[in-house]
Amino acid sequence: MGHPLRGSIPDCYGGFLDTGTGLGVLFLEDIAPAVQGDVLIDPGDEVADTTIQVIASVHASPWRARAADYPAALPRWQAEVWDADRMVERLAGARARFPELLTDQLDRRLERLPGELGDAIAGLRAGPASWIHTDAHLDNILLRPDGSVVLIDWAGAVIGPPAVDAARFLIEGPPGLAADERRSLALVETYQRELVARGSPEVRRREDVDRRWPSDAAPRSEHHRLGRPAQFGAIGAPHGRAPRECGSERG
Q1: Cβ atoms 150, 180 nearer than 8 A
Q2: Which of 59, 124, 176, 232 is the most exposed place for a label (fewest CB within 10 A)?
Q3: Residue 246 lies in a domain
Q4: Does a structural domain hold residue 232?
Q5: How many domains is the chain partitioned into structurally?
């Protein structure tokens, strides 16, 4: 039996590491013939669906209840959070440049973001972990003639929250996806079905997936006003349930 990810990521034939410099070389499969995806071009529902399935398959096998279940030497996901002072400084500049856009309500909302982001990121870190790509978007896929998708460019792979990859694809996936709630929710459903179908020890039932996804996400209306997809909440509410009124603009 082949590796469960064979065909979804390039095969690695070997490598060399210089322990003195920390630099190395990997010898990877040549994915040809194939066409590279493009974040500026919508490849259609079928390719988007296949890509989110590949992302789920990457997460399923190494899925663990928490990052601490992995060896400490493995690289970990890091998230940058703006502190309150930095946000105040940026908001002052935005008020001066865009007074007609930055309403009082939106201004107050943005002032709260640093604290809300910190809470959301803490929730992600406390939740399930897997090997994640961290840059899973259409520029980093190759489309084979048979319709299969290969996820490439693994230089940033780390141990971290699987939601990071799924959320990034929802934001930087096909153009217009972020504003299409129906399509985004369908992709979340596809992701979760594939995760369960892969049968990893930590994810055996649909209910497990629903429970393990963080639901600390921004209200739908706020995401639309901020130009972000409502489906951050949908990741934690995959059957169309409304997310809790908590805030995170980024995963």
Answers
A1: no
A2: 176
A3: no
A4: yes
A5: 1
The alpha-carbon radius of gyration of the chain (Å, integer) is: 19
pTM score: 0.75
Read off the pLDDT of residues 162-182 as tens digits, 9 standing for 90 and up: 999 999 999 888 888 878 889
Q: Which SS3 state, helix, strand or coil, does residue 148 take?
A: coil
Residue 123 included in any domain:
yes
The one-character DSSP state at 69 is G
Chain-centre distance of CA 89, in angstroms?
29
CATH no. for residue 138? 3.90.1200
Q: Is residue 56 part of a domain?
A: yes
The whole-angstrom separation of Cα 220 and Cα 83 is 24
Are residues 183 and 67 in contact, defined by beta-carbon separation less than 8 angstroms?
no
Q: If DSSP codes are grouped into helix, strand and coil, which group holds residue 17?
A: strand
Q: pLDDT tens for residues 198-228? A: 876 555 554 455 544 443 333 333 333 333 3
For 75-124, the pLDDT digits (tens) are 999 887 667 788 778 888 888 898 888 888 888 888 787 788 778 888 88
Instruction: Identify the domain containing residue 218 by its residue range.
Output: 12-236
Tokens matching residue 220:
């739908």
